[in-house]
Design brief:
The structure holds 2 protein chains of 2 kinds. By secondary structure, chain A is an alpha/beta fold. Helix content of chain A is 30%, strand content 17%. The longest helix of chain A is centred in the first third of the chain and has 16 residues. Chain A starts with a helix and ends with a helix. By secondary structure, chain B is an alpha/beta fold. The radius of gyration of chain B is 18 Å and the shape is globular. Chain B contains 10 helices and 10 strands. The chains are: A alpha/beta, B alpha/beta.
């Protein structure tokens, strides 16, 4: 273990070649079985769990000299986490970085899928806190494995049932469970359910890394991703009765932002790249 | 009883390490019949029940179950996926501690709806209607449908666990001391409820209990266990009124207030 860590410390993109090879092997398996959680040999990273260590290890295993990296946190490129992860890869991999979605080859994200449609060849990397969609209902990890193996996903409907009983609607607004490729139930990390439809038949490759739990999973391009729902409570994305206060967009995910200390607040796009371009050129 | 049994077991044995828990037990459970299994603590009742329900594999012997679709299944030889599917549809298991059979942080309605939802029900309105229907069947107040079992009393939890198991109309139910830990008046009401439900739905059940009064009240036939063996079996009244085996005689004579 010491030997591996020592070898890791100075490698391209921080991790050693041996570790990256093992992570890539886990990722290949994850791509081969869409939605299935695959264990990987997670390393200690120079930042705490919860700061995106899973996503960073996935990105580190994939990034090469030709890649262009975009990092977003809460949809924005200029938040602390995004800035420091970008800096990390500039320093350890001399990575070219961008804020423009269509320029990026790898997009590491915490909460959002960009509003700009993804294209073939792009890779989304998600930082996942809790990869297990069944944990809330069944805390036993061995039983979770069995339920995945046998495709026993009835319990997810119990969760939806509880939501409707308590809130009058399906209140789960993020990390909304979905069935991938008609086989594996997946927790799409903490993205809002607004972004779930973007996973369905996406052109891009989506890779999910959970650092604390040392698991990766994937949604390959052109894969069916169906959000769970009831026949009488169909899946719906969030809607706002207003437009973005900055760019006037009506179809993007809005964050409520406090604008002064007098109680003023406004709703703006969470995707800062999308918002800026809408303001600059009117075209997203 | 000329019908075929719903469940039959032949030569079941199970040891925990060097300790034998069940030794060479065979039995049959017929449609609409409640079979009582009595004996003192440690006699192997619960182990036998777990084997019959498919929760625990025997060291030797076999359990045969007649599935709803008609085929005869060897419960411990079919694939685990099939066994688990049966366990949440055609079979029911009522645990001694309701906490083991219920999800304590999910509402009563959610608990009851779990099995129908796991069997393919995809309408919220229907799931809720089914939950309410079964809540009322076990005589729980309708306004407690959205409360969590952790807010329920012991007697209510016992009823809720029954409702949860009955929601898919199982063909055979396994009851492990369903009235344990309840005070006497609540026990009587729960027993009465089980008797009513079994009559109404033609339930086949194996009832494990050390309470001979409960056994007399509910079961049609009785199996007496001692040290893992079935020492006596027969019609309930016959066994209790005219016990043949010395152990059964001892058991019967030890009922408080009788003899």
């Amino acid at each position: 273990m010491d030997k591996v860590n020592a070898a890791d410390a100075g490698g391209f993109a921080f991790l050693g070649e041996d570790t990256k090879k093992r992570v890539r092997r886990a990722l290949l398996k994850a791509v081969a079985i869409p939605g299935h959680q695959v264990p990987f040999p997670g390393r200690e990273m120079p930042m705490p769990y919860g700061w995106g260590t899973g996503g960073i290890q996935v990105t580190a295993s994939l990034i090469g000299p030709g890649d262009v990296l975009k990092v977003i946190d809460q949809g924005a490129d200029d938040t602390t986490n995004a800035v420091s992860i970008r800096k990390f890869f500039r320093r350890t991999a001399d990575a070219r970085v961008t804020e423009r979605t269509e320029e990026a080859t790898i997009i590491q994200t915490r909460h959002r899928i960009p509003e700009t449609p993804l294209r073939a060849g792009q890779i989304m990397v998600y930082q996942v806190p809790i990869p297990e969609p069944l944990r809330f209902l069944e805390p036993k990890a061995g039983e979770n494995l069995m339920m995945h193996a046998l495709g026993e996903y009835g319990l997810l409907y119990v969760k939806l049932y509880e939501d409707i009983v308590r809130h009058g609607e399906i209140a789960q607004s993020y990390d909304y469970p979905a069935l991938v490729n008609g086989r594996h139930a997946m927790s799409p990390s903490p993205i809002p359910r607004f972004d779930n439809p973007k996973l369905h038949m996406s052109e891009a490759l989506h890779l999910f890394g959970a650092g604390r739990e040392k698991r990766v999973y994937a949604v390959p391009p052109h894969t069916e991703v169906k959000s769970y729902d009831f026949s009488d409570y169909p899946f719906k994305v969030q809607e706002w009765d207003r437009a973005c206060a900055l760019c006037g967009s009506r179809d993007s995910f809005l964050d409520e932002v406090v604008s002064d200390d007098l109680g003023g607040r406004m709703f703006v796009c969470s995707d800062s790249d999308h918002c800026r371009r809408k303001r600059e050129g009117g075209e997203a | 009883m000329t019908e075929e049994p719903v469940l039959s077991a032949a030569g079941l044995s199970k040891s925990y390490g060097a300790v034998p828990a069940v030794r060479d037990v065979s039995l049959e459970l017929y449609p609409s019949e409640i079979l009582g299994v009595v004996g003192e603590s440690g006699s192997g009742k619960t182990t036998l029940l777990k084997i019959l329900a498919g929760h625990l594999a025997p060291d030797s012997g076999e359990v045969f179950y007649r599935a709803a679709e008609g085929s005869l299944l060897s419960l411990h030889r079919i694939p685990e996926s099939r066994r688990r599917r049966l366990a949440r549809t055609e079979l029911g298991f009522v645990f001694q501690n309701p906490e083991d059979g219920l999800r304590m942080k999910i509402s009563a309605g959610g608990n009851i709806a779990e099995r129908p939802l796991a069997s393919g029900l995809r309408s919220f309105a229907e799931a809720r209607a089914a939950a309410l229907r079964w809540l009322e069947k076990v005589e729980l107040p309708a306004d407690r449908l959205d409360d969590r079992p952790e807010e329920y009393s012991g007697g209510m939890r016992a009823r809720l666990q029954l409702a949860k198991n009955l929601a898919t109309s199982p063909r055979a139910v396994f009851l492990d001391e369903p009235t344990a830990g309840l005070d006497v008046s609540v026990q009587a009401r729960v027993l009465d409820l089980i008797r009513g439900l079994s009559a109404e739905f033609g339930l086949s059940a194996v009832l494990v209990t050390h309470d001979l009064m409960a056994a007399r009240l509910l079961s049609h036939r009785l199996l007496v266990m001692k040290d893992g063996r079935a020492v006596e079996s027969g019609l309930t009244d016959q066994v209790l009124d005219d016990p043949q085996e010395p152990y059964t005689q001892l058991l019967v004579s030890s009922i408080l207030g009788e003899a």
